Amino acid sequence: MWYNSWVYLERKITSFLERIVHQFPAILLSGCRQSGKSTLLRKIFPDYAYVTLDDIQARDTAKTDPKLFLDFYKAPVIIDEIQNAPDLLSYIKIEIDNNRKKKGQYILTGSQQFNLVADIHESLAGRLGMATLTPMSIEELKKKNISTWITHSLSGLYPELITDKELEPKLWYSTYIESLLNKDIRDNLKREHLGTYDRFIKLIAARCGQELKYQDFAKELGVSNLTIQSWINLLERSQIIFLIQPYYNNLGKRIVKSPKLYFLDTGLVSYLSGNSNQEIIQNGPMGGALFENFVIAEIFKFFSNRGIKPPLYHFRDSQGVEVDLVIEYENKYLLFEIKSTMSPKKNHISGLSKVSKLFTKTTSYLVCNTKEQAPLNNEAIAVNWLEIFSILESFISSDF
Question: Is there a domain that residue 25 lies in?
Answer without folding.
Answer: yes
